[in-house]
């Protein structure tokens, strides 16, 4: 993992070398892999000196031979190849055609070198170093509930959305179902209207096997709109119900079931204490708001009449649709994450227990990569950023959290202790010249000339340098504020 300091040093090194141009193929680039024998590299460069003597252009020949000689001398200063290998460069750095300024540059890269390379060209070969600025390590992100899911990737400081999905899970306000009037009376230890029933309440029902009144727990509840309804009257009660609601009847010594629209005045309904004859049945062809509930024991007493568990089939439909959605998310996770060799882990977030239900449908190769599961509110693209913020402790060593931490420190100090902050090129430059800067923050979109000057002053005064990306909301906030900002050691006038 390349730290902010290493990234800043590497970026500056690359920028300095990229500005140098040779007259011909006279700039020498050498990459030495970790663990490779330096003596062999030196011997190879000595052989290249002999080959360079054949270059026709006298000035180019002299520059190449001189560059190789200085490179060899430089490498002899090392007892062994550094642990990450070594990148070394030599050539004429003079911008004037009339002057020769042969110089050598080298650095141990922050990432282990695995490539051996020697080349003479008009420019230095910097692609291997530039690749090290690209964050290869990544984390999978999934935020979801039963209605929506977003799959993303955290790579360095960039949160990238890979896929967005919505489900076909019906909401709890659904047209259809076996429903009753909101004012229907039920018993949960006291007499209440069905509209006031809560999931988890115990309602009076009937054990058909034991032939006795028993309690049944409410496990779900819906609000439903109907285009019409039946009014069923008995001597003691009246029931307003949807036409498809199943009601228990008593005939030939047995309890049976009938839909409300199938009932006639010849039927007897099952009451809490005795059977009761239907006096009238009337259908109203007008819209009505009704209540649909599901109970564990599949029946309950409504206005003292035994009716079927009204919404069990909708609970099953919703559960089946949720499972299908979980499988879709899992398939997307397989496609996006299993092929990524640099994936270090996966974070999952969402509201309530849904995310734990979903995890059971993930591929085992994905499951073992899960680092943390977090409770978060949002399941859209914003939810991905919220999930990253919720995983700060797990990501403490990653570049995005390092960047977020320094930006949070700056903006909090700007709000609470403004005299210890400055922003804008002129003010930051002045503070650096005074030696008052502890940390300097530079947006990566700042002009290279200004960036070089600020970095140079920071190095002279011992200030820490942070190059801030545009991948996070905080990074974009710094760009909008001033591009350059600083946290001070002490206040200045």
Distance between the termini: 39 Å
As a percent range, the share of strand residues is 25-35%
CATH hierarchy class name of the largest domain? Alpha Beta
The CATH level-2 architecture of the largest domain is identified as: 2-Layer Sandwich
Helix content: 25-40%
Q: Give the strand order, joined by hyphens, for the main sheet.
A: 7-6-5-21-22
Shape: elongated
CATH homologous superfamily (4th level) name of the largest domain: eRF1 domain 1
pLDDT below 50 for ≥5 consecutive residues: which ranges? none
CATH topology of the largest domain: Translation, Eukaryotic Peptide Chain Release Factor Subunit 1, Chain A
List the helices and strands and how they pair.
Blueprint lengths: L3 H15 L8 E6 L5 H15 L5 H18 L10 E7 L9 E6 L9 E5 L5 H7 L4 E7 L3 E8 L2 E9 L18 E3 L3 E3 L8 E6 L4 E15 L2 E6 L3 E4 L4 E6 L2 E6 L8 E3 L4 E10 L3 E8 L3 E4 L2 E4 L3 H26 L5 E8 L3 H6 L4 H4 L2 E6 L5 H10 L8 H18 L4 E3 L1 H9 L3 E7 L4 H14 L2 E5 L4 H9 L2 E5 L5
Helix pairs in contact: 1-4, 2-3, 10-11
Give a written overview of the molecule:
This protein has 493 residues and is α+β, with helices and mostly antiparallel strands. Helix content is 31%, strand content 32%. Strands 7-6-5-21-22 form a five-stranded mixed sheet, with helices on both faces. A hairpin with a 4-residue loop joins β16 (268-270) and β17. α1 packs antiparallel against α4, α2 runs antiparallel to α3 (58-75) and α10 packs parallel to α11. 33% of the residues are buried. The model has no long low-confidence stretch (mean pLDDT 88).
